[in-house]
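User: Hi! I'm working on a homework problem where we have to compare a predicted structure to a textbook description. Could you give me the structure for the chain below?
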Amino acid sequence: MGLLARLFQTVYRFKQGDQVNLVRNGLVARFEGVVVAHTRQGVLVDWPTAGADWMDPGELVRLVPDTQLARA
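Assistant: Happy to help. Predicted structure tokens:
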């Protein structure tokens, strides 16, 4: 398996406190959730408008603060 293929199959391990968006079918379905836990069951995310819910880590994208972009 090529390096590029492995890159797309790797699931990011979210850390407690990470801010995330939920992306389904190419559209952002929920905004600015906060990761509470990441277990084998999935990722527990606390959403500002919908409360806490277990999510598939493959549907989440981590929000990167502008300060981290400046260092990249």
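For your comparison, note the following. The two ends are 28 Å apart (CA to CA). The first helix runs from residue 3 to 9. Good luck with the assignment!
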